[in-house]
Design goal:
By secondary structure, the protein is of the alpha+beta class. The chain has helices at about 15-25, 75-90, and strands spanning about 1-10, 30, 35-40, 55-60, 65-70, 105. It contains 2 helices and 6 strands. The protein has a 6-stranded antiparallel β-sheet.
């Protein structure tokens, strides 16, 4: 399992966490509160190009949104980082692009 974490500075972390989780809950396994959320991306989800499972975990506080991705391979991890960045920037369009400081977990 490959993992990466990023701390994304924003005063709207809880709002974005909830928007992302609500967006993905229509097709994926999602659990969330205003401060914590998890999204499970299954193998070959909806015809996507990745080939393994991934778990994305979000934690919000007053200053930032923390994102952790656990993926089945390095390639899948990299693809999932792109998925999270694109979706988060879409919801945070007023302050996008947000800063992601990805590093190995």
């Amino acid at each position: 399992m490959d993992s990466a974490v990023a701390n994304v500075p924003t005063a709207h972390a809880s709002k974005y966490l909830q928007q992302l989780c609500k967006h993905w809950q229509h097709n994926l396994a999602v659990e969330f509160t205003p401060d914590h959320g998890t999204v499970t991306f299954p193998r070959d989800a909806r015809g996507a190009t990745w080939t393994g499972d991934a778990l994305v975990t979000f934690d919000a506080d007053a200053a930032a949104l923390s994102v952790r991705i656990d993926a089945s391979s390095d390639e899948h991890l990299e693809a999932m980082q792109g998925v999270v960045v694109r979706h988060l920037d879409r919801f945070a369009f007023r302050e996008a692009p947000l800063t992601f400081d990805w590093h190995a977990a």
